[in-house]
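User: Design a sequence. Structure:
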């Protein structure tokens, strides 16, 4: 007589009548930082501070919202300066102490940084936020 494999409702095989347990990954802890309304220097300072704080607080990712999705090339003046400065900083390794450069994702209106694991994460503490200038 041939034995048939039993399957649970989700399709995982049942061994000896018990479902095979698989670990459920926890959702990533992501911090989103809106840089709209800041001048370039303040936006960069805030971005660096938030990435460092997020790492120290045990976050997995930081998304820096810079806008200017339609600005496709680096600019010296006007819209898109924050976007291109953040990308430049990521390229030269400014975030490397806290983020994995290989998994940095420059999106059209934001920059997503995958943070390195912090085995000694602290309870949440954040530096104060500077005032927006625009």
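Assistant: Done.
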């Amino acid at each position: 007589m041939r034995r048939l494999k039993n399957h649970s409702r989700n399709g995982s095989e049942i061994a000896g009548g018990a479902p095979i347990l698989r670990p459920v990954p926890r959702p990533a802890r992501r911090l989103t930082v809106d840089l709209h309304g800041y001048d370039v220097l303040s936006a960069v300072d805030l971005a660096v501070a938030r990435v460092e704080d997020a790492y120290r607080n045990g976050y997995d990712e930081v998304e820096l919202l810079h806008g200017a999705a339609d600005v496709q090339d680096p600019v010296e003046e006007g819209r898109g300066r924050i976007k291109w400065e953040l990308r430049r900083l990521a390229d030269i390794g400014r975030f490397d102490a806290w983020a994995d450069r290989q998994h940095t994702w420059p999106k059209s209106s934001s920059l997503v940084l995958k943070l390195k694991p912090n085995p000694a994460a602290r309870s949440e503490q954040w530096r104060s936020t500077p005032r927006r200038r625009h």
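Strands lie at 6-7, 13-15, 18-19, 30-34, 61-65, 105-106, 110-114. Helices lie at 40-56, 81-92.
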